[in-house]
Amino acid sequence: MERRSLTATILVHAAALILAAVILAPVVWLFIMSISSTTDLITKPLRWWPETIDLSRYGVLLSSVANSAGEAFVASLFNSLKVAGMATAAALVVAIPSAWAVSRTPSVGWSLYAVIATYMLPPVALAVPLYMALSALGLLNNVFGLALVYLTILAPFTTWLMKSGFDSIPREIESAATVDGARLDQILRLITLPLAAPVMATAALFAFLLAWDEFFYALLFTSDQRAKTLTVAIADLAGGRVSDYGLIATAGVLAALPPLIIGLFMQRALISGLTNGGVKG
Amino acid sequence: MTSNWITTRAWLLMLPLLIVMIAIIGWPLVDTVRLSFTDAKLVGTAGSFVGLDNYVKMLSGSNFQRTLVTTTLFAVLSVAAEMVIGVLAALLLNQQFYGRSVLRALMILPWALPTVVNATLWRLIYNPEYGALNAALTQIGLLDTYRSWLGEPGTALTALIVADCWKNFPLVALIALAALQAVPRDITAASMVDGAGAWARFRFVIMPYLAGPLMVALVLRTIEAFKVFDLIWVMTRGGPANSTRTLSILVYQEAFSFQRAGSGASLALIVTLLITILAVAYAALIRKSAGAS
User: How many Å apart are CA A179 and CA A173, to the nearest integer?
Assistant: First the structure.
């Protein structure tokens, strides 16, 4: 690297400290709120670090005692897992064959633009008919119904990511296997899909995070513990009359943990997915 | 294999996706168009044909015009702030300093935090009685009395923009950083030998590498910001006095709170049309700048 004056070095380090503080302060504060006692959180002047560390709220939210705050929270946690899991699996099933087809067949490439275009549609443009259809089918307040609706977001997105993934696998490998007499299903199963495994994993993680994060459809289409997802449960807590801010913060920490862990450990894959998917389209 | 068969095979492989997309995207979109010409209610009455009444009513209403201004203000200000802060952060992260790799890793945190958790977190920070912002500003001495940041029309929108910006500028920074790392070292070195100042280097050496990725980030972020719902719903529900009501919130209220499916659908299509115009304009802009360079 080029040589830097001492002043420049100090400035760079100061700026880095400020950036780190900006990024960390809100997240750390969320965690501190979750382990502070209610009295610490409502004293003035505010106590920035709790007198005694209080982990009881984690116990409260993760308990399954009937009719408790915990029961509702645990139910919504499982609903989120079910909906996000099912929607991700279904999205991959429909996205993989189409993404491969688009990647290998230039003559149908235009259909990918149609797929990407739907990704720009605001959910409000589909919400009313989807609500009426789910209601007619008896799928309102139902995890299967919500997972189906999530496909509107996940299917175009995973197709887009998988297509750029298949693009980076040389088609010569496939043609060589064809010459050797392999059938298409053999080629895909034994050669292409194993090579595309990392991209599939990235696409699956992205899709899961998108579904985990979703709020609008969940707010509209679910109404109680049978299907309410975490995002709706947290919005209920935040907007309701809960006076224990620490409990709201704890719910936030628990809901944020899976994506934060995925984000930190899968950083490289996520960033290359973001930049590739975003730049190459 | 004939090219005919290859094309047919491609369509066959795409069939599951096409069926799903037609069933849950194509059909609902068409049905939204149909509903927008009726006075249908969300539950019960199917409604009868009313022509363009819904559109006329919605477009001429003061609600729509005010909401459009609010939405545009939110989108332009938050995206502009995210782009500027994001690029500055990326330039910093491209320098050498102790703990650089840790800080780069931390940048993923706000992006990974679920939107609703982010909104809840900032709602707690802005709390008028016990919030951390009031406490911090008072303890430093910048504020005499606690304020209701989300409760006053004058500050609510700005407070929302800050919350949105905190969550999204790191993504811009990561995209810009990836682009910066693609700038060849010898080019920057050569420009320094040639005596180019910091600004000239940024403008003429680095910017060409940043422009493409930043443009894509700009498009995606603007469209997202224009659609914003979650953040605002959790933090203010469009209040106080509708000062933070955006288009998506207005559609929600019309179609679901008031159960007027017909006029809600017409409003949703107006929003869709606005986003489409935005996307097409951006696409033209990108093509033009790609052709120029």
Answer: 10
Quote ipTM for the complex.
Answer: 0.91
Residue B235 · residue B252 · CB < 8 Å: no
This prediction has a pTM of 0.91
Contact B20 A151 (CB under 8 A): yes
What domains are defined for chain B?
Answer: 48-292 (1.10.3720.10)
Inter-CA distances, A30 with A24, A70, B119, Å: 10, 19, 12
- Pair A17, A148 in one domain: no
Q: Does one domain contain both A221 and A108? A: yes
Q: What is the mean pLDDT of residues A41-47?
A: 83
Angstrom distance (rounded) from CA A205 to CA B160: 28
Specify the 3-state DSSP secondary structure of B49: strand
Same domain, A77 and A7: no
A13 falls within a domain: yes
Q: What per-residue confidence (pLDDT) applies to A227?
A: 94
Q: How many CB pairs under 8 A join A and B?
A: 275
- Nearest CB neighbour to B114, from listed A23, A115, A256: A256
* Lowest mean per-residue pLDDT among B43-52, B78-87, B217-226, B274-283: B43-52
> Closest Cα to residue A166, out of A193, A146, A145, A147?
A193
**Phi and psi at residue A10, to the nearest 5°:** -65, -45
Residue with structure tokens 């004939």?
B2
Indicate the residue of A16, A94, A274 with minimum beta-carbon distance to B17: A94
Q: Is residue A60 part of a domain?
A: no
Q: Is it the case that residue B53 has pLDDT exceeding 50?
A: yes
Distances (CA, A) of B80 to B87, B88, B161, B250: 11, 12, 11, 24
Over chain B, what is the mean pLDDT? 90
Q: Are residues A211 and A235 in the same domain?
A: yes
Instruction: Give the range among A63-67, A130-134, B280-284 with minimum mean pLDDT.
Output: A63-67
Per-residue model confidence (pLDDT) at position A2: 53
Apex B251 CA angle, B248 and B255, nearest 5: 145
Alpha-carbon distance A64 to nearest alpha carbon in chain B (angstroms): 22
Instruction: Identify whether residues A128 and A161 lie together within a single domain.
Output: yes
- Domain housing A262: 66-280
Q: Per the structure, how many domains does chain A have? A: 2
Q: Do both A143 and A245 map to the same domain?
A: yes
Is there a contact between B214 and B179 (Cβ–Cβ < 8 Å)?
A: yes
